[in-house]
Write a structure and sequence with these properties.
Layout lengths: L3 E5 L5 H14 L6 H12 L6 E7 L2 E13 L4 E11 L8 H16 L4 E2 L7 H10 L13
Parallel strand pairs: 4-5
Antiparallel strand pairs: 1-2, 2-3, 3-4
Length: about 150
């Protein structure tokens, strides 16, 4: 098996990143348009935007992604990390790709002085939750949304 490389996304990754991100959208039943994909890809490569991306590369192919950003925590007066999206190609699951993406994000967090990284996942995302239960602590917070 070829070694897994976790690295920042680069502009030349677009063609391989898009099917992964579409797979993530399909999983959560969120339709993606060419415009929304272009927007997110633009954010990732805009040094003035908070969204960043890690990719997992194996054998020259991208097999996973993680989108993350700094997030202010006003109650604490600090910035923490927020993981927006984590997705691994179904064919690469079981090879610890997600765990390695999270480990790299944890290293980035430590280097930036973020004392925690937060994320949310669907209650019925059992496979991912098994990983998350191994590497993190589930909080007691509930998530709410309001739509204007």
């Amino acid at each position: 098996m070829t070694d897994l490389i976790i690295r920042p996304a680069v502009p030349g990754d677009r063609e391989c990143w898009e099917p992964l991100f579409r797979g993530y959208g399909d999983f959560y039943k969120v339709p993606m348009t060419a415009e929304s994909l272009e927007t997110v890809w633009g954010w990732i490569h805009d040094p003035g935007h908070v969204v960043e991306a890690l990719v997992a590369e194996q054998g020259g192919a991208l097999v996973g992604l993680a989108h993350f950003r700094a997030m202010p925590s006003p109650l604490r007066g600090i910035e923490i990390g927020f993981l927006d999206d984590l997705f691994v190609d179904p064919a690469a699951r079981g090879a610890k790709v997600g765990e390695k993406l999270l480990a790299r994000l944890n290293e980035i967090s430590a280097a930036r002085g973020w004392n925690k990284i937060r994320w949310i996942t669907a209650d019925d995302n059992y496979r991912a939750r098994t990983l998350y239960d191994r590497v993190a602590v589930k909080t007691a917070w509930n998530l709410y949304e309001m739509t204007p």
